[in-house]
Model the fold of this input.
Amino acid sequence: MPHITVAGSAAVWDYIFPVDRLPEKGDIVSITRDSDEAYPGGCAPNIAAGVAALSGYRPNLYYPVGCEFQESGLKDVWAEKGIDCSELKYRSDVKSGYAWMFMQPDGSTMCFSYAGAAKGTVPASLERLGEWVVVTPMLNEFTLTILKEIAGNKSKKLILTGICSEGIIEFLESAYAVIINIHEAKILADLKGYSSIDELADSMGETILYITHGGNGSRVYYQGESTPIPIVQADKVLDFTGAGDAYTSGVVSGLVRGLTPVEAAYIGATNSSFVVEDFGGQSNLPSLELLKERLASYAPEIVAKVL
Done:
Protein backbone atom coordinates (compact mmCIF):
# COMPACT_ATOMS: atom_id res chain seq x y z
CA MET A 1 0.00 0.00 0.00
CA PRO A 2 1.48 3.39 -0.97
CA HIS A 3 2.44 5.62 1.95
CA ILE A 4 1.33 9.20 1.26
CA THR A 5 2.33 12.24 3.32
CA VAL A 6 0.70 15.65 2.99
CA ALA A 7 2.61 18.47 4.66
CA GLY A 8 1.85 22.14 5.20
CA SER A 9 1.83 24.91 7.72
CA ALA A 10 -1.01 27.40 7.51
CA ALA A 11 -4.66 27.74 8.52
CA VAL A 12 -6.82 25.19 10.28
CA TRP A 13 -10.12 27.05 9.90
CA ASP A 14 -11.55 29.13 7.03
CA TYR A 15 -14.10 31.90 7.41
CA ILE A 16 -15.73 32.34 3.99
CA PHE A 17 -17.50 35.52 2.90
CA PRO A 18 -19.00 35.90 -0.58
CA VAL A 19 -18.85 39.53 -1.75
CA ASP A 20 -20.29 41.45 -4.71
CA ARG A 21 -16.77 42.31 -5.82
CA LEU A 22 -13.31 42.62 -4.36
CA PRO A 23 -12.52 46.12 -3.13
CA GLU A 24 -10.22 48.73 -4.55
CA LYS A 25 -8.27 50.82 -2.06
CA GLY A 26 -10.71 52.68 0.19
CA ASP A 27 -13.78 50.78 -1.07
CA ILE A 28 -16.64 49.40 0.99
CA VAL A 29 -18.16 46.26 -0.52
CA SER A 30 -21.18 44.20 0.45
CA ILE A 31 -20.90 40.74 2.00
CA THR A 32 -23.71 38.76 0.40
CA ARG A 33 -24.01 35.91 2.88
CA ASP A 34 -24.27 36.25 6.63
CA SER A 35 -22.23 33.54 8.29
CA ASP A 36 -19.89 33.30 11.25
CA GLU A 37 -19.26 29.58 10.66
CA ALA A 38 -15.67 28.39 10.56
CA TYR A 39 -15.06 25.62 8.02
CA PRO A 40 -12.25 23.07 8.41
CA GLY A 41 -9.60 24.34 6.05
CA GLY A 42 -5.95 24.69 5.18
CA CYS A 43 -4.50 23.43 1.89
CA ALA A 44 -2.74 20.41 3.37
CA PRO A 45 -5.77 19.14 5.34
CA ASN A 46 -8.00 19.76 2.30
CA ILE A 47 -5.66 17.72 0.10
CA ALA A 48 -5.24 14.97 2.68
CA ALA A 49 -9.02 14.62 3.00
CA GLY A 50 -9.40 14.47 -0.77
CA VAL A 51 -6.67 11.85 -1.16
CA ALA A 52 -8.25 9.73 1.56
CA ALA A 53 -11.66 9.91 -0.10
CA LEU A 54 -10.43 8.90 -3.55
CA SER A 55 -7.36 6.74 -3.12
CA GLY A 56 -8.55 4.40 -0.40
CA TYR A 57 -5.27 5.03 1.44
CA ARG A 58 -4.78 6.84 4.74
CA PRO A 59 -2.39 9.78 4.21
CA ASN A 60 -0.48 11.06 7.19
CA LEU A 61 -0.73 14.80 7.78
CA TYR A 62 2.30 16.80 8.90
CA TYR A 63 0.79 20.04 10.22
CA PRO A 64 1.13 22.42 13.19
CA VAL A 65 -1.92 23.06 15.37
CA GLY A 66 -2.50 25.32 18.35
CA CYS A 67 -3.80 25.37 21.89
CA GLU A 68 -7.51 25.29 21.01
CA PHE A 69 -7.22 22.31 18.65
CA GLN A 70 -7.75 19.47 21.12
CA GLU A 71 -11.08 20.85 22.31
CA SER A 72 -12.30 21.81 18.82
CA GLY A 73 -13.09 18.24 17.78
CA LEU A 74 -11.36 18.80 14.45
CA LYS A 75 -8.94 15.93 14.96
CA ASP A 76 -11.90 13.54 15.14
CA VAL A 77 -13.35 15.10 11.98
CA TRP A 78 -10.09 14.60 10.11
CA ALA A 79 -9.71 11.06 11.41
CA GLU A 80 -13.24 10.20 10.25
CA LYS A 81 -12.33 11.48 6.79
CA GLY A 82 -9.46 8.99 6.71
CA ILE A 83 -6.51 11.20 7.69
CA ASP A 84 -3.71 9.85 9.88
CA CYS A 85 -3.23 12.64 12.46
CA SER A 86 -0.33 11.09 14.38
CA GLU A 87 2.22 13.57 12.98
CA LEU A 88 0.42 16.78 13.98
CA LYS A 89 2.72 19.17 15.85
CA TYR A 90 0.94 20.65 18.88
CA ARG A 91 1.65 24.13 20.23
CA SER A 92 0.30 25.07 23.67
CA ASP A 93 1.34 28.73 23.52
CA VAL A 94 -0.62 29.96 20.50
CA LYS A 95 -3.82 29.26 18.56
CA SER A 96 -3.95 27.44 15.24
CA GLY A 97 -3.85 29.46 12.04
CA TYR A 98 -7.06 30.96 10.66
CA ALA A 99 -7.97 32.43 7.26
CA TRP A 100 -10.63 34.91 6.22
CA MET A 101 -11.64 34.40 2.58
CA PHE A 102 -13.46 37.14 0.65
CA MET A 103 -14.59 35.81 -2.72
CA GLN A 104 -16.33 37.49 -5.63
CA PRO A 105 -18.69 35.51 -7.94
CA ASP A 106 -16.01 34.49 -10.45
CA GLY A 107 -13.90 32.92 -7.71
CA SER A 108 -11.32 35.70 -7.42
CA THR A 109 -10.37 35.87 -3.77
CA MET A 110 -8.68 38.01 -1.18
CA CYS A 111 -7.33 36.02 1.74
CA PHE A 112 -6.29 37.42 5.10
CA SER A 113 -4.61 34.95 7.40
CA TYR A 114 -3.38 34.66 10.96
CA ALA A 115 -0.37 32.35 11.11
CA GLY A 116 -0.72 31.26 14.74
CA ALA A 117 0.91 27.86 15.24
CA ALA A 118 2.14 27.91 11.63
CA LYS A 119 4.78 30.49 12.49
CA GLY A 120 8.14 29.29 13.78
CA THR A 121 7.15 25.63 14.19
CA VAL A 122 9.15 22.65 12.94
CA PRO A 123 7.98 19.03 12.58
CA ALA A 124 8.35 16.83 15.64
CA SER A 125 9.78 13.98 13.58
CA LEU A 126 10.54 13.17 9.95
CA GLU A 127 10.69 9.40 10.33
CA ARG A 128 7.25 8.73 8.83
CA LEU A 129 7.49 10.72 5.62
CA GLY A 130 5.92 8.58 2.90
CA GLU A 131 7.16 7.56 -0.51
CA TRP A 132 4.77 10.21 -1.87
CA VAL A 133 5.18 13.62 -0.21
CA VAL A 134 2.88 16.53 -1.06
CA VAL A 135 4.08 19.92 0.19
CA THR A 136 1.57 22.75 0.13
CA PRO A 137 1.64 26.53 -0.36
CA MET A 138 3.25 28.14 2.66
CA LEU A 139 7.04 28.02 2.38
CA ASN A 140 8.15 28.48 5.98
CA GLU A 141 10.30 26.81 8.62
CA PHE A 142 7.96 23.82 8.88
CA THR A 143 7.76 23.00 5.17
CA LEU A 144 11.39 23.93 4.46
CA THR A 145 12.52 21.43 7.10
CA ILE A 146 10.68 18.71 5.21
CA LEU A 147 11.89 19.82 1.78
CA LYS A 148 15.51 19.89 2.90
CA GLU A 149 15.11 16.38 4.32
CA ILE A 150 13.88 14.84 1.06
CA ALA A 151 15.61 17.00 -1.59
CA GLY A 152 17.47 14.71 -3.97
CA ASN A 153 16.04 11.56 -2.37
CA LYS A 154 15.13 9.39 -5.36
CA SER A 155 12.98 7.12 -3.19
CA LYS A 156 10.52 9.97 -2.59
CA LYS A 157 8.02 11.31 -5.11
CA LEU A 158 7.77 15.00 -4.16
CA ILE A 159 4.73 16.96 -5.31
CA LEU A 160 4.80 20.73 -4.84
CA THR A 161 1.54 22.65 -5.02
CA GLY A 162 0.66 26.33 -4.87
CA ILE A 163 4.21 27.49 -4.10
CA CYS A 164 5.64 30.21 -6.33
CA SER A 165 8.16 31.99 -4.08
CA GLU A 166 11.85 32.26 -4.93
CA GLY A 167 12.76 29.83 -2.17
CA ILE A 168 11.11 26.94 -4.00
CA ILE A 169 13.41 27.11 -7.03
CA GLU A 170 16.17 25.02 -5.45
CA PHE A 171 13.70 22.16 -4.88
CA LEU A 172 12.15 22.04 -8.37
CA GLU A 173 14.69 19.53 -9.67
CA SER A 174 13.65 17.15 -6.88
CA ALA A 175 9.95 17.41 -7.72
CA TYR A 176 8.04 14.59 -9.37
CA ALA A 177 5.21 17.02 -10.12
CA VAL A 178 4.39 20.70 -9.63
CA ILE A 179 0.74 21.84 -9.45
CA ILE A 180 0.13 25.61 -9.62
CA ASN A 181 -2.40 28.06 -11.02
CA ILE A 182 -1.74 30.40 -13.94
CA HIS A 183 -1.01 33.36 -11.65
CA GLU A 184 1.53 31.33 -9.70
CA ALA A 185 3.05 30.01 -12.93
CA LYS A 186 3.63 33.53 -14.24
CA ILE A 187 5.32 34.51 -10.98
CA LEU A 188 7.53 31.42 -11.06
CA ALA A 189 8.44 31.99 -14.71
CA ASP A 190 9.42 35.57 -13.91
CA LEU A 191 11.49 34.48 -10.90
CA LYS A 192 13.38 32.05 -13.12
CA GLY A 193 13.91 34.68 -15.82
CA TYR A 194 11.61 33.18 -18.44
CA SER A 195 9.38 35.25 -20.69
CA SER A 196 6.62 32.66 -21.07
CA ILE A 197 4.92 29.71 -19.44
CA ASP A 198 6.17 27.50 -22.27
CA GLU A 199 9.76 28.38 -21.37
CA LEU A 200 9.06 27.51 -17.76
CA ALA A 201 7.55 24.18 -18.82
CA ASP A 202 10.52 23.40 -21.09
CA SER A 203 12.86 23.94 -18.14
CA MET A 204 11.12 21.36 -15.96
CA GLY A 205 12.80 18.32 -17.48
CA GLU A 206 11.08 15.12 -16.34
CA THR A 207 8.96 16.95 -13.76
CA ILE A 208 5.24 16.95 -14.56
CA LEU A 209 3.83 20.49 -14.59
CA TYR A 210 0.11 21.08 -14.01
CA ILE A 211 -1.23 24.61 -14.46
CA THR A 212 -4.86 25.38 -13.62
CA HIS A 213 -6.71 28.19 -15.41
CA GLY A 214 -9.90 28.52 -13.35
CA GLY A 215 -12.93 28.44 -15.63
CA ASN A 216 -10.68 27.68 -18.61
CA GLY A 217 -9.67 24.27 -17.31
CA SER A 218 -6.06 23.22 -16.85
CA ARG A 219 -3.03 22.13 -18.83
CA VAL A 220 -0.50 19.35 -18.37
CA TYR A 221 3.11 19.80 -19.52
CA TYR A 222 5.19 16.64 -19.66
CA GLN A 223 8.03 15.37 -21.82
CA GLY A 224 7.65 18.17 -24.33
CA GLU A 225 3.89 17.75 -24.70
CA SER A 226 1.26 20.31 -23.68
CA THR A 227 -2.23 18.86 -23.14
CA PRO A 228 -5.35 20.94 -22.36
CA ILE A 229 -7.80 19.54 -19.82
CA PRO A 230 -11.39 20.85 -19.93
CA ILE A 231 -13.31 21.86 -16.86
CA VAL A 232 -15.84 19.35 -15.57
CA GLN A 233 -19.19 21.02 -14.98
CA ALA A 234 -20.55 21.16 -11.45
CA ASP A 235 -24.27 20.80 -10.76
CA LYS A 236 -24.09 24.18 -9.01
CA VAL A 237 -21.40 26.60 -7.85
CA LEU A 238 -21.55 27.98 -4.31
CA ASP A 239 -17.94 28.44 -3.25
CA PHE A 240 -14.54 28.13 -4.92
CA THR A 241 -12.65 27.62 -1.63
CA GLY A 242 -10.55 24.48 -1.89
CA ALA A 243 -11.16 23.94 -5.62
CA GLY A 244 -7.43 23.99 -6.33
CA ASP A 245 -6.77 21.65 -3.41
CA ALA A 246 -9.38 19.24 -4.77
CA TYR A 247 -7.69 19.34 -8.16
CA THR A 248 -4.40 18.49 -6.44
CA SER A 249 -5.84 15.64 -4.37
CA GLY A 250 -7.45 14.21 -7.50
CA VAL A 251 -4.19 14.38 -9.43
CA VAL A 252 -2.26 12.78 -6.56
CA SER A 253 -4.85 10.01 -6.22
CA GLY A 254 -4.64 9.33 -9.94
CA LEU A 255 -0.84 9.25 -10.01
CA VAL A 256 -0.72 6.97 -6.98
CA ARG A 257 -3.13 4.62 -8.75
CA GLY A 258 -0.78 4.44 -11.75
CA LEU A 259 -2.64 6.70 -14.16
CA THR A 260 -0.75 8.80 -16.69
CA PRO A 261 -0.22 12.52 -15.91
CA VAL A 262 -3.03 13.48 -18.30
CA GLU A 263 -5.43 10.86 -16.94
CA ALA A 264 -4.67 12.05 -13.41
CA ALA A 265 -5.53 15.60 -14.46
CA TYR A 266 -9.03 14.45 -15.42
CA ILE A 267 -9.42 12.99 -11.92
CA GLY A 268 -8.34 16.35 -10.51
CA ALA A 269 -10.74 18.34 -12.68
CA THR A 270 -13.66 16.08 -11.76
CA ASN A 271 -12.85 16.17 -8.05
CA SER A 272 -12.75 19.97 -8.15
CA SER A 273 -16.21 20.10 -9.70
CA PHE A 274 -17.71 18.54 -6.56
CA VAL A 275 -16.00 20.81 -4.03
CA VAL A 276 -17.39 24.04 -5.54
CA GLU A 277 -20.93 22.78 -4.91
CA ASP A 278 -20.76 23.51 -1.18
CA PHE A 279 -19.00 25.87 1.21
CA GLY A 280 -15.59 24.82 2.50
CA GLY A 281 -12.71 22.86 1.04
CA GLN A 282 -13.61 19.58 2.77
CA SER A 283 -17.42 19.72 2.65
CA ASN A 284 -18.37 17.97 -0.57
CA LEU A 285 -15.53 15.61 -1.41
CA PRO A 286 -16.85 12.75 -3.56
CA SER A 287 -16.28 9.07 -3.16
CA LEU A 288 -14.44 7.34 -5.98
CA GLU A 289 -17.72 5.89 -7.26
CA LEU A 290 -19.40 9.31 -7.46
CA LEU A 291 -16.37 10.75 -9.20
CA LYS A 292 -16.37 7.95 -11.77
CA GLU A 293 -20.06 8.54 -12.53
CA ARG A 294 -19.41 12.19 -13.39
CA LEU A 295 -16.14 11.54 -15.20
CA ALA A 296 -17.85 8.99 -17.45
CA SER A 297 -19.44 11.82 -19.44
CA TYR A 298 -16.05 13.31 -20.23
CA ALA A 299 -13.54 10.48 -20.40
CA PRO A 300 -15.10 7.00 -20.15
CA GLU A 301 -11.81 5.40 -21.18
CA ILE A 302 -10.22 6.75 -17.98
CA VAL A 303 -13.08 5.50 -15.82
CA ALA A 304 -12.41 2.01 -17.10
CA LYS A 305 -8.83 2.23 -15.83
CA VAL A 306 -9.77 3.42 -12.32
CA LEU A 307 -10.45 0.39 -10.16
Remarks:
- The first helix runs from residue 43 to 55.
